[in-house]
Specification:
This protein has helices at 3-39, 45-72, 93-97, 108-129, 136-158, 163-166, 175-193, 214-233, 242-274, 279-294, 302-325, 334-352, 358-386, 393-398, 400-405. It is mainly alpha-helical. The radius of gyration is 21 Å and the shape is globular. It is found in: Cell membrane; Membrane.
Length: 417
């Protein structure tokens, strides 16, 4: 096979791999929808499903219009991004076959699709944290700004070659750029929104509000676990060489082992604290392990990945309990899973990657959190002033399904809590 044919074959193979990984990450949207709808009360199911499917469509359109340009067409080493529109031209055959280090090795459209699903994942994190009391259209208005501007700007700082990348900040697949960013936006919204009615009582009492469908939440977790192989594996960007193929296999292995470690440790910690095996903590433990390994799923050994995930599983249990103590109401534990454990994942890079700098990792944490939290707080505040964030007390009691969507997810069941 001559070099031209080999190059064309590799280009096609890497493009196909990239698209399949993107499809796996898109499938994570279903995982978030199932997880969140399983962890809320039955009377709020339709609305949260509507949010999840609508935010994916919103993210797709906004990332097409402005987000992708901001993230990947801004000046290298910069802080302020360039503002532009649409996604540019596809690679030509001449450019691909020219060879050399600058020749593209996968379709530009496959890259755009892969980046869309990451933007949507970031916004999905916000959905669960503000569940059961936020107005649907307030959430979607925020999704427009988050996926079109807030997320792409900090994404440019690292993956688009901005100042964090120049400073040596390492985040392989997005413990910070995706997960901590989503949690930071969620935290800003929750602080303005307030807790659900009845969640906290006098004298620091915390009242459990069980989810309506734990089989659905478990299914959602398995879907997310599966989708994460595309999330981390696709971030290798190619696999048409022996070295890249081996790297992808290591990333898949480490991703799986970190999830397993997170679940087992969270289950054990919950048993020690509560005397029972807590399914919701176990599910969040698996997700915490996945978030923890996302910043660096390549350089750890499989055992190291298991331990990194295990630390994430322990952290998420204590974080969920700690947020309840300070009356930050997060129905699905998203801020803990993606925010607190996202920070751990960024710091854990220093344990296995010799190129990592603690200073650069801390700079990334502070920069991403400060930008996303402050920008989100401003946007949430504007939305609150214009249309309001929260449904009325009566609508919250009746359920946001009827108030916001005019239908129930389980109409044959009339009992409400």
């Amino acid at each position: 096979m001559d070099n031209t044919a080999l190059t064309a074959l590799q280009y096609g193979f890497d493009t196909f791999y990239f698209l399949i990984c993107g499809a796996l990450v898109m499938w994570m949207a279903a995982g978030f929808a199932m997880l969140e709808s399983g962890l809320v009360r039955a009377k709020n199911t339709t609305e949260i499903l509507t949010k999840n499917v609508a935010l994916y469509a919103t993210a797709s359109v906004m990332y097409l219009l402005v987000g992708y340009y901001i993230m990947y067409s801004s000046p290298e080493g910069g802080i302020l991004p360039s503002l532009g529109f649409l996604i540019g031209d596809e690679n030509t055959s001449e450019a691909v076959l020219a060879g050399g280090d600058d020749a593209p090795y996968y379709s530009a459209r496959s890259d755009f699709f892969f980046q869309i699903v990451f933007a949507a994942t970031c916004m999905s994190i916000v959905s669960g944290a503000v569940a059961e009391r936020m107005k649907l259209w307030a959430f979607l208005a925020f999704a427009v700004v988050m996926t079109g501007f807030i997320y792409p700007i900090q994404g440019f700082w690292k993956w688009g070659g901005g100042f964090l990348n120049e400073a040596g900040f390492l985040d392989f697949a997005g413990s910070g750029v995706v997960h901590m960013a989503g949690a930071s936006a969620a935290l800003a919204g929750v602080l303005l929104l307030g807790a659900r009615k009845g969640k906290y009582g006098p004298n620091g009492q915390v009242n459990a509000i069980p989810g309506a469908n734990l089989p659905l939440a478990t299914l959602g977790t398995f879907i997310l676990w599966m989708g994460w192989f595309g999330f981390n594996g696709g971030s290798q960007l190619k696999m048409s060489t022996i070295e890249d193929a081996n790297a992808v296999a290591q990333v898949f292995t480490n991703t799986n082992m970190a999830a397993a470690g997170g679940l087992i440790v969270a289950l054990i910690v919950a048993r020690l604290l509560f005397g029972k095996a807590d399914l919701t903590m176990a599910l969040n433990g698996a997700l915490a392990g996945l978030v923890a390994i996302t910043a660096e799923p390549l350089t750890p050994s499989a055992l190291q990945a298991t331990l990194i995930g295990g630390v994430g599983g322990a952290l998420v249990v204590f974080s969920i309990l700690g947020l309840d103590k300070v009356k930050i109401d997060d129905p699905v534990g998203a801020i803990s899973v993606h925010g607190v454990v996202g920070i751990w994942g960024i710091l854990a890079v220093c344990l296995t990657n010799e190129d990592a700098s603690l200073g650069a990792q801390l700079l990334g944490i502070v920069s991403i959190f400060a930008w996303v939290f402050i920008a989100s707080l401003i946007v949430w505040s504007i939305i609150k002033a214009v249309i309001g964030l929260r449904v009325s007390e009566e609508e919250e009691y009746e359920g946001v399904d009827i108030a916001e969507c005019g239908m129930e997810a389980y109409p044959e069941f009339t009992g409400k809590k």
